Amino acid sequence: MAKYLEYLRKSRADGENETIEAVLERHEKILHEYAEKNGIDVSEADIYREVVSGETIQDRPVINKLLTRIQNEDIKGVLVVEPQRLSRGDLSDCGTIIRAFRYTDTLIVTPTKTYDLSEKFDRKFFEMELTRGNDYLEYVKEIMMRGRLASVSEGNYIGSLPPYGYDKVKVGKNYTLQENSESDTVRLIFDLFVNEGLGTVNIANRLNELGIKPKKIGFWTNSTIRDILRNPVYIGKIRWNWRKTIKKYENGEIVKSRPKSSAEDWMLVEGKHEGIVTEEIFNAAQKRWGTFPKVKHSAETVNPFAGLVHCECGYAMIMQKSAKSSPRVVCRNQARCGNKSATFEEFEEAVIESLSSYIAEFKMLAESGNKVKLNSKETAVKKLEKALKDLELQQERLYDFLEDGTYSKSVFAKRNQALAEKRSKTLSALEAARMSVEPTPIDYREKIVLLTDAVTALKDNNLSAAVKNSLLKNVVKEIRYSRRTANRTKWDKTPFHIEVLLKF
After folding, report:
1. CA neighbor of 126 nearest in space, from 83, 78, 88
2. DSSP secondary structure string, 339-402?
3. Alpha carbons 169 and 146: distance in angstroms, whole number
4. Residue 73 backbone phi and psi in degrees, to 5
5. H/E element, 141
6. CA 90, 57, 409 angle in degrees (round to 5)?
7. What are the average pLDDT values for consecutive 10-residue runs of the chain, which has 504 residues?
8. Which residue in 177, 424, 466 sits closest to 307, CA to CA?
9. Element (H, E) at 420
10. Residues pairing with 6 in the sheet
């Protein structure tokens, strides 16, 4: 009797409010109904439930166990609710999945279609599904990020774990923080640091002697004390994007790190929770570090265009305030480059107008049904399709040469890797070319939503500059400014020119 396995995994497409257990149970029911209807028997030992939410194969141990098994055993097929459950990673992960199933003659069985990857057309269709899945993953990430940003700007707490001294509590549909018994320890830490002058090492030792336990490990360290003393959450603030997840490719693997972000990249807003210590003692703690608290530094929150505007000379543009006149957008190198400033109000209106024109353009394209195509781009698509087909034929011949002894295993491996790299680059170029010829409606709709959010934010006087800046950085790559005039008076009416470059 043919042997079948079953693979279950929750993805971001299922939504944040649905638990892993609920998703897996629902998908298992779907697959069991399909299996029963089609005479397929899957035992409990053959069901693989992925509970780790890794983005890549290397981060998902269960899928690795499944792939090992189909390589070592005669498995007829693997049941999944959709192809993207196997991989929504990069092209490398997609290639791993395809090779594993193709060269073990293992079917991929979904309720809507069965894929035989030894067949060229099934393989191409499956590749398209995985690529589409990766694009959708990025889309979902962006949507979720916007949702988190909006929630943070309202003062909600979106972290998975509450900071020491607080419990995470739900109020309506959102979460905030509520002081717990650990808060007395937080007050003690600030008191020992500010009023008694103890260092972080001595404070850690004092708490350990008292038998007070931190959350994560069994003893206090100077770093945990330092993090508490520097965290503005203890004066009722929400700090977001303080540590970004950075991915690097090292030694054949993706390595993640979470370094501290620069002040201009993270935001600080009023939280809905009560602080544990006063701003006075918190600020005193920061002064002892030799730094002033971020909550008092307004430079990163004054200008919604911070980090985005550049003069044509290459220097950054800043917002310059004066007690005698309205704020202006000024080049840091104004004295040398010759570009003259503009009022902030005029500049902001120009940016809004430029973004609004992009919105109108994308709406027109979306409403047109995406029928506009460029002949040159269509030709490029056809060339890339032919190139991809040629590479596939070359790769198939490689296996023939290996089987008849023309190539040794080492020669085969070297040439196969080179072909795989070429094919991966060609496939990426083909997808990009296809998208440039005929973008999907959802691409246009997503662009419209992101741009509209940015424009709405700029017009909303109740939103902080930090929130506006974060929303702008979702869509704007750079704003280039130019205003050339020989007249040095501020009453000069020579118009300025801006060029807003989008990230998409």
Report:
1. 83
2. BPPEEHHHHHHHHHHHHHHHHHHHHHHHHTTS----HHHHHHHHHHHHHHHHHHHHHHHHHHHH
3. 22
4. -125, 160
5. helix 120-153
6. 85
7. 89 62 88 93 92 70 91 93 76 80 93 90 80 55 62 82 92 90 94 90 91 85 90 89 58 55 64 92 86 42 85 86 82 78 92 93 72 58 80 73 73 76 79 62 71 89 84 90 69 81 86
8. 466
9. helix 409-437
10. 47, 79
Q: Which two tokens stand for residue 35?
A: 């299996």
Which pair of tokens denotes residue 320? 């310059």
List, in sequence order, every residue forming a beta bridge with 320; answer none if it has no partner.
Answer: 328
To which residue do tokens 């393989």 refer? Answer: 123
- Alpha-carbon distance 230 to 289, whole Å? 9
In a domain, 318, yes or no: yes
Q: For residues 203 and 215, give the distance between their C-alpha atoms in angstroms, rounded to a whole number.
A: 16
Same structural domain, 135 and 159: no
How far is it, in rounded angstroms, from Cα 422 to Cα 424?
A: 5
Split into its structural domains, the chain has a count of: 4
Instruction: Strand 342-343: give its sheet, edge to edge.
Output: 317-320, 328-331, 342-343
pLDDT in tens, 132-176: 655 555 555 555 566 667 777 788 888 878 999 999 999 888 899
pLDDT tens for 365-409 read 776 654 444 455 667 777 887 887 787 777 777 766 766 777 777
Rounded CA separation 214/228 (Å): 11
Could you say which of 438, 456, 474 is where a domain stops? 438
State the Cα–Cα distance between residues 283 and 292, nearest whole angstrom. 7
CA 236 to CA 228: how far, in whole Å?
A: 13
pLDDT by residue (tens digit) across 430-459? Answer: 777 766 655 444 467 778 888 888 898 899
Q: Which residue has the tokens 């290996």?
A: 402
Query: Model-level pTM greater than 0.85?
Result: no
Q: What's at 244, amino acid-wise?
A: K
Token match 């990230």: residue? 503
Give the structural domain span for 337.
Answer: 309-367+444-502
Phi first, then psi, for residue 48 (nearest 5°) are -110, 115
Answer yes or no: do 315 and 354 share one domain. yes
Of 56, 132, 58, 71, nearest to 104 by C-alpha is: 71
Tell me the residue ranges of DSSP E strands in 277-351: 309-311, 317-320, 328-331, 342-343
